[in-house]
Amino acid sequence: MKNRPIIAVVDDDEDDLFLIQEAFKACLKEEKVVLANSGQDLLAQLETLPILPSFLLLDLNMPRMSGFELLGKLRADARYNLMPILVFSTSSAQPDIDRAYELGANSYVKKPSSFDDYKSVVEDLCNFWLHVASTPSSRFLP
Amino acid sequence: MTGPLAILLVGTSSPELQALGQSFRKFGVSYRHLSAQENGAMDAYFQKSLADAPFVPTLIMLDMDSCDPGAILAILKHHPVLRRIPVVIFGQGNDPERVKLAYGLGATCYMPKPENWEVSMTHFCSYWKKRVALPIIKAEDILATNPTLQHNRQ
């Protein structure tokens, strides 16, 4: 049976998770969205997924395990080190942007402030990562 | 919101080069083309040409059909400054091993050459130009990693 493509999101802010989920609904077809509210939650959920997510949206400012710490863990794990990780943060501080790329983020997207902007950002993000780029899991499902 | 998108396009030729150039001009994206006649072209660009022509890319696009992505990524990803620059590898086809290879080398993404460049590049430019915050790479920082060049430039 064909597995549905998966998009993963990790963010400790429930409102942001809700906005992201709603924005994805407008542009996704068959893809499933997996939501995690912490780094630990994401790592636990990744263990159970049948395929690698097409990409992960990663918040930076999270308690207990920061986005940078989680990014480092994922890049050091052979199971997940090819998964595209898109930092999704309110921070536009250049040191954060540079550090994210240093640690192996695939891109850094500034988190929008309104729901209309969320929809438009998520649409651009899906158009590129799901329809233009190929990822290690997105188009070659078992 | 984001810094300027400046693309170094490595190793592609007609007709892709024309299609890409047309898209970049349409979306106001600055770019330079570097023909990859040898695998050291990238090395030469950053080690020599930069001192005279300071076009510092914030994104590199690499045609894996016309150059060796492994050799080029090895240079970039081991460089203290250049390793921050995202590298998009593009090429013919969508073979899973080819895609895994690209990501395994440290590429930001793999992009199969599309049948319709105009549509794909519209999405490409909309994402990379409007949405993505890019690293800031200064020519001085690159030259500082090679004291000889820095001295010659002064």
Describe the model.
The complex is a heterodimer of chains A (142) and B (154). Chain A has a single domain, classed as 3-Layer(aba) Sandwich (Rossmann fold), CATH 3.40.50. Chain A is of the alpha/beta class and 142 residues long. Chain A is built from five helices and five strands. In chain A, strand 4, helix 4 and strand 5 form a beta-alpha-beta unit. Chain A has a five-stranded parallel β-sheet, with helices on both faces. Chain A is globular, with a radius of gyration of 14 Å. The termini of chain A are close together. By secondary structure, chain B is of the alpha/beta class. Chain B has one domain: Rossmann fold, CATH 3.40.50. In chain B, helix 4 links the parallel strand 4 and strand 5. Helices cover 45% and strands 16% of the residues of chain B. A five-stranded parallel β-sheet of chain B has the order 2-1-3-4-5, with helices on both faces. The model of chain B has no long low-confidence stretch (mean pLDDT 85).
Which descriptors apply to this entry?
heterodimer, A: 142 residues, alpha/beta, Rossmann fold, 16% strand, globular, B: 154 residues, 5-stranded parallel sheet, 7 helices, 5 strands, 45% helix, Sig_transdc_resp-reg_receiver (chain A), phosphoprotein (chain A), Response regulator (chain A), CheY-like_superfamily (chain A), TCS_response_regulator (chain A)
- Write down the secondary-structure element order of chain A: EHEHEHEHEH
Q: What is CATH's topology name of chain A?
A: Rossmann fold
Which percent band covers the strand fraction of chain A? 15-25%
Strand order of the largest sheet of chain B: 2-1-3-4-5
CATH arch. level architecture of chain A:
3-Layer(aba) Sandwich
- Sheet with the most strands: spatial strand order of chain A: 2-1-3-4-5
Strand content of chain B: 15-25%
